[in-house]
Design brief:
- Homotetramer.
- Its cofactor is Mg(2+); K(+).
- It comes from Sporolactobacillus nakayamae.
- Residues 9-217 form the YjeF N-terminal domain.
- Pfam families: Carb_kinase, YjeF_N.
- The protein has 504 residues and is α/β, with parallel strands linked by helices.
- The protein has two domains: 6-221, 3-Layer(aba) Sandwich (Rossmann fold); 228-501, UDP-N-acetylmuramoyl-L-alanine:D-glutamate ligase, CATH 3.40.1190.20.
- Helix content is 43%, strand content 13%.
- A ten-stranded mixed beta sheet has the order 8-17-16-15-14-13-12-9-10-11, with helices on both faces. A seven-stranded parallel beta sheet has the order 3-2-1-4-5-6-7, sandwiched between helices.
- Helix 6 (140-151) links the parallel strand 4 (124-128) and strand 5 (155-159).
- Helix 2 (24-39) crosses helix 3.
- It starts with 5 loop residues before the first helix and ends with a helix.
- 50% of the residues are buried.
- Bound molecules: ligand NAX, adenosine-5'-diphosphate and potassium ion (K).
- The site of adenosine-5'-diphosphate (ADP) has 18 residues, from helix 18.
Length: 504
């Protein structure tokens, strides 16, 4: 499933209309019908449904929905914020069809009191005020209606996007509808994955409206949401005659005297994720603790680290910030140029002023910062990163020729060529120390087993989140999931994914 900016969505619509020949009114009819079909199962006879309509094509969708509601058992009332005489194009076409079907239109500006009463009675509000075409803060008459909708006790369903939200995820301070549910047309817009905007969407359902895939290709969209089907299609399948050397020989350089856990989490997660052989390098002082818990690993002393015979390396979790550690990080990044190298946590800290090392590598490195680490790498604030993460991630990955795993609620993986994949799994149970270390281990193991680095990174992030979802869905709450729980719950999730592979 693609994820688009405002401009990309406009180009996709225009291509479909101009070159595929599906007219705007057809797409609008499809959109309205898809929304009606999504609403229908929950509609109750006699229910008060208020459709609030703006001047543009989002309002046009509203007219189609209102027309279909006319023939249902609900009581529909349709309120217009704009002047009907100013409605043009496809929206005017469907306004006419609505009126000709016996529908009535009220104008908010003509009957403010009636509108207030209507919202008080309403059980369901369909928000078709503003869609992807909004620019800047909603005009005063729209803002007033938005705040009335937000004060109402009715269920609010936004069409395409909660009205007022800038679709490309730009930061904003103006009012926007806070929906209980958003019925997104055709494909998700960037704003759905950007924190401030995302909070306004409620539950999201994406409704196809019949746009062919060719239109996405023509519009040059290279951004997707990872689905379970993508993961099942790309997980590595073991050759029955394979041996331990076939599944990667990795080295994990992690841990410090005061942070032994990080090395343990990454190592155990790598083992649970299928790595063939794992060597671990921790300071001698903590080796006995780690070795006692990880009998499956071999150990390399920090002073004699060599990459010979290895096929991949991960460096960073709990490493510490001393000067000599920085030298080690830079040496490893330079010497591992011909194999995958995951850089996380303190590894990123030490790389901050040496990012050019990344460009000299033959095999792109995989960096897995959270927003704070990304902000430090870029010399920006976390707020700046969060408000423009798609653009910043793309710029960084292209500039330094890396796979960037920008972690967060919707972890975003960006390839060196700018392709982007948004992860859809995971929950706030992962907002706890150690979760990132687990991901580093999964990343290392997957990079050494997948054919394509992008698939490896995306599948690792998907699995990490899916395990947290599985735990919270069955046995845990959002509070009590530990990094060790995530590691221990990898097997049942992988088991089910591999069960599905049987039929691929
Ligand atoms: N053929 C198409 O392009 C299709 C469009 N669709 C719908 O059309 C929407 C996009 O339509 P439009 O591009 O007409 O845009 P919108 O309906 O989102 O709104 C733009 C309209 O609002 C006005 N406007 C812009 N900024 C404003 C502001 N700050 N305050 C108040 N009014 C403002 C503009 O003058 C314009 O008339 C989508 O979100 C989707 O719901 C769907 O019907 C599918 C087909
Ligand atoms: N609210 C959340 N929803 C979904 N995933 C989350 C959330 N908070 C954190 N995560 C995930 O948990 C991991 C945390 O990584 P990180 O901050 O590096 O943790 P640590 O440094 O403690 O190991 C990331 O993969 C991140 O995407
Ligand atoms: K809307």
């Amino acid at each position: 499933m693609h994820v688009v900016s405002r401009e990309e969505m406009r180009n996709i619509d225009q291509y479909t209309i101009a070159h595929i020949g599906l007219g705007g009114p057809v797409l609008m009819e499809n959109a309205g019908r898809a929304v009606y079909a999504a609403l229908e199962p929950d509609l109750k006879a006699g229910e008060q449904v208020t459709v609030v309509i703006g001047k543009g094509n989002n309002g046009g969708d509203g007219f189609v929905i209102a027309r279909l509601l006319l023939d249902s058992e609900v009581c529909v009332s349709t309120w217009l914020v704009a002047d009907p005489g100013k409605i043009t194009g496809d929206a005017a076409y469907h306004m006419k069809a609505y009126l000709a079907s016996g529908g009535k239109i009220m104008q908010v500006k003509d009957d403010q009191e009636g509108f207030r009463r209507q919202l008080e009675q309403a059980e369901l509000i369909v928000d078709a005020l503003l869609g992807t075409g909004v620019h800047g803060a909603p005009y005063p008459e729209y803002s007033a209606v938005i705040s009335q909708i937000n004060q109402s006790k009715a269920q609010v369903v936004s069409i395409d996007i909660p009205s007022g939200i800038p679709a490309s995820g730009e930061s904003f301070t103006h009012p926007a509808v806070i929906a209980d549910r958003t019925l997104t047309l055709e494909c998700p817009k960037l704003a759905q994955f950007v924190e401030h905007a995302a909070r306004c969407f409620g539950t999201v359902h994406v409704l196809p409206i019949g746009i062919p895939r060719l239109a996405y290709r023509k519009a040059g969209v290279r951004r997707e949401v990872r689905t379970r089907a993508d993961v099942v299609r790309t997980l590595p399948v073991r050759d029955p005659f394979s041996h331990k050397g076939s599944h990667g020989k990795g080295l994990l350089i992690a841990g410090a005297a005061e942070m032994p856990g990080a090395a343990f989490f990454s190592a155990k997660a790598a083992l649970r994720s299928g790595i063939g052989l794992l060597k671990v390098s921790v300071p001698d002082s903590i080796k006995p603790i780690i070795a006692g818990r990880l009998p499956e690993t071999m150990f390399l002393s920090r002073d004699t680290i060599s990459l010979e015979g290895l096929t991949g390396v991960a460096i960073g979790p709990g490493l510490g910030r001393e000067h000599h550690v920085g030298l080690l990080v830079r040496r490893i990044v330079e010497e591992s140029g011909a194999m995958p190298c995951v850089i996380d946590a303190d590894g990123l800290f030490h790389l901050k002023n040496h990012l050019d090392l990344l460009r000299r590598r033959n095999v792109p490195a995989v960096l897995s910062p959270h927003s704070g680490e990304m902000a430090a790498l870029m010399g920006m604030s976390v707020k700046d990163i969060e408000s423009d993460r798609f653009t910043i991630a793309k710029m960084f990955a292209e500039k330094y020729h890396v796979y960037l795993v920008l972690k967060g609620k919707y972890t975003l993986v960006t390839a060196p060529d700018g392709r982007q994949v948004v992860n859809s799994t995971g929950n706030a149970a992962l907002a706890k120390g150690g979760s990132g270390d687990v991901l580093t281990g999964i990343l290392l193991a997957f990079l050494l087993q997948h054919k394509q680095m992008m698939d490896a990174a995306c599948n690792a992030v998907y699995l990490h989140g899916a395990v947290a979802d599985d735990l919270v869905g069955h046995t845990h709450s959002l509070l009590d999931v530990l990094a060790t729980d995530v590691i221990d719950a990898i097997p049942p999730v992988l088991h089910r994914l591999y069960g599905d592979i049987g039929s691929r």
